[in-house]
Structure formats: structure tokens, C-alpha cells
Design goal:
By secondary structure, the chain is of the alpha/beta class. The protein contains 10 helices and 8 strands. The chain has a 6-stranded parallel β-sheet with strand order 5-4-3-6-7-8, with helices on both faces. Strands 1-2 form a two-stranded parallel ribbon.
Length: about 250
Amino acid sequence: MAQQTYTCPADRIAIINSEELTEYMVRRYGLEDVYTLPFTINPIIKEAIEPITRERIIVVYGRPNTPRNCFEVIIQALALWQRSEPDEALRWKIISAGEDYDANAVTEVKNFTVVGKLPLEEYGELLSKASVGISFMISPHPSYPPLEMAFAGLMTITNKFETKDPAKRSPNIISTSEVTPEMVADALSAAVRQANSFVGSLRQTSEIAAVPTSFPAYNAVEFALRLSRMVEPPQREILSEVAAGD
């Protein structure tokens, strides 16, 4: 039923979140009348991010009950990295944010803490001091958490998916072509090496680049005017009806 809203022959106007998803949906469903909602950093998170000393903290977007976020692969990759680089791994804390669950269930990963779903202010504070981020989304949408992590200055690991490659948006992003424990562990090793160069120092935010798209950005005022013209008869028709006594 959801897909039918894209394939039905009726007239439709598409408003699609993110440039990447816009290109995917247009390519897949042949949409023509399209607006895109470009990514912008949440203002509360942006305000909460401060230039403070970076610590050896890996932030994981951990959602075990949401398969598209690849929680099991993340845990396997962390365990694999810790076994392959035990001395380095001992220096890093791992904090899982996004969903509440029992950290005792994650026995294979050391130095692991679950903080669950944080208020945006606390989430921004965590990003201010962390140095590495891991967040996946098996979807053509870029997902907010990896872009927020990269904006905050974290070396961020996420994934490609068909039309999306988040690495095009920021030099802070490492995007893997596949989400496997081995590939993610290798990406984590690379991210940690890069992050070690700024641990203990201040690190500024980094703007997230827009992705080129041929479709106009959504503007609420312009869209409201367009809708009003569609549902209200033109003024001249109203006047002619009045003149006719209707």
C-alpha cells in the first residue's frame, strides 16, 4: 500500500527527505513533480556541540530492535577489532546511544556502555568529546546520526547504498561498500588511526556538504501558495460567478 502511493497513476507531488533519497525515488518510480528536503543539522544538537578536548570515545548508534541499523554486525566488528588490536582497544571507551537495552547482553565487547536514547542536548555534549562514530542505515536515505557525528568532528563509519555515498558529504566519513564485520572492523582501525591525531586537542565542527540534485528544495511558503492555487478557484472565476448571481 505504501509503494502504491508512488506507482498509482493519479496526479501527485513528491516531497522527499534528503537529496540521496530524492535521486533514488525518482530513478525507481519515475517521479516528476518533486521537491527535496536537503539535510540540515538539528539546531539543538548544533548549539550543544562545543569545542572541548577530544577523548578516546567511540559512539555507536546502537538499536538492536531495528534491523536496518545493523546492530549485530556492529557488535561483531567491535569484538573483531578488539581482538586484532587489543592494546589499542584498551584505550578506547565504547558508548552505545539510540536505544535502551541491557549492556550485559553484549558480553563480547569490552569497555562497553549503553546510554540509550539521549535528550538532544546530552547527545550533542557526547559528540563534543567523542572522536569516532559508527552508524549504519541499510537504506537509500543517508540517515541523520552519521551526518551529525561527522558534523561534530568524529571520524565516522557508515555505509553506501545504491545512489548514496555519505563520504561525498564530509572528509570525516568513511563509507563501506558492504556492512560485514570484517569490513567494518577494517574501517574502524582506519578511523581510530586518524582520530588518534586529534585526541587530547580541540576539534571544530565540519560542515556537511550538499549533494547535487536537479530538483528544487522544498519551501513551505511557496508550497502553501501552490496548494492554495490548486484548491481555490482563480479570482476571476469567483467574480464571474458573482456577476451571474450564482
